[in-house]
Amino acid sequence: MAPKPILVFLLLLYIISVGAAMSGNDPRRKLEEEHGMRFDYSFNSGFIIGYIFSLVSVVTIFISYCFPWSDFKKINEKKTPLSKTLLMAKPRRICYQEVNKQSLISDLEKLITRMSFTSLKKATGSFDKHNFIGMGKKGKLYKAKLPYNCLTAVKRIHNSQHLVDQFFSELMILGKFKHMNIVPVLGFCIESHEKLIVYKYMPNGNLYNWLHPMNHESKTLDFHSRINIAIGIARGLAWLHHNNFIIVHSNLCSSCILLDKNLEPKISNLEGSISFSNIDDIRSTEKHLIQSDIYKFGVLLLEIILGQDFYMPKETFKERILHSSTSISTLYNAVDKSLISGRGDNAKIFSILGIACSCIDQVPDQRPTMLQIYKRLLAVKKINNCMEDSKASIQIDISTTDFIDDIDFEITEVEIR
Fold this sequence. Notes:
Number of domains: 3
Oligomer: single chain
Protein name: Protein kinase domain-containing protein
Number of strands: 12
Order of helices and strands: HHHHEHEEEHEEHHEEEEHHHHHEE
Domain Protein kinase: 127-379
Subcellular location: Membrane
Distance between the termini: 78 Å
Transmembrane segments: 47-69
CATH architecture of the largest domain: Orthogonal Bundle
Low-confidence stretches: 35-41, 69-94, 385-417
CATH topology of the largest domain: Transferase(Phosphotransferase), domain 1
Mean pLDDT: 74
Organism: Manihot esculenta (Cassava)
Radius of gyration: 38 Å
């Protein structure tokens, strides 16, 4: 298709030719030539009239065509960046764009208390190094004291668009879904480039530091505490996996398990979680994500019992442990020696190792669900004289949320495997 300026030029030539035709093909001249008739007119005046008409037509068309088109082009060019941005934006797992930022903040304020940066800066002593707890990939964590001597942990998020998306994601999950084994969120702050999340302070830190204490530390976890921690983590994951709105943690490890003053575990680091609506509608990819969570729980369970750090580069030991050919008796030889007390806990240790091996089965479809794992771990705790009747019905409340109805699971005829 010819460019618009060329079309205008061709249109101009056409109108001029029409004008010439009008001046040169006057009917009175034709009658004069054919019949010898003579009229009082001037050829020059006809020619001038024709070209005046042509010129007026050209100017009118040029003004009406070129100038509005030019204005429209300028307006359209101004709109191009935004339209391209919207059209070229690709869907993401969880993406919070600037256009709906205020709406998101408004929704969050209905779920979580919004706090000012000034108050949090004061509570942390201007983010003093003495209040520094630790640093992760997403930000720094500080201990803070709010009014009424309320101890909190404040995470100051690094300034990154990718982390901003995760910031909103974590707040939405923690604000909507509350559970006794999910870390409680107390508030948030978003001002200018500052983004902070306020959690309830966990005085016993994370599980990793308890399982792998430094040389100068005297931290120890007895078997009773370890099995309670494993049960609490399983209860929290079962609740996340078996709700109407399913949440996959996707990054489960001992460092993201926090412990309160009673060593009750709290699952944290939910900013990278993946969520979907209903277990009946999940696709194979989503099912794989759930099975991956179960696998990671199995690795964590081995870490709790064996005392080995599977996330360090000890590939030979890791491969030996995580292959289905490894026998439970071989695993038992690698158990943390502090757990072998000769008080009849051997049967429980063997049972837990069996559960862990089922979680890391090389065939994902053969792995148990988190609900099944939770039931089995609870049953292991009842071995020996800890339960009067192993076949009694036990009501297990795994949900403590104001937003979703409580979910009770009934275990009947408990099997010890």
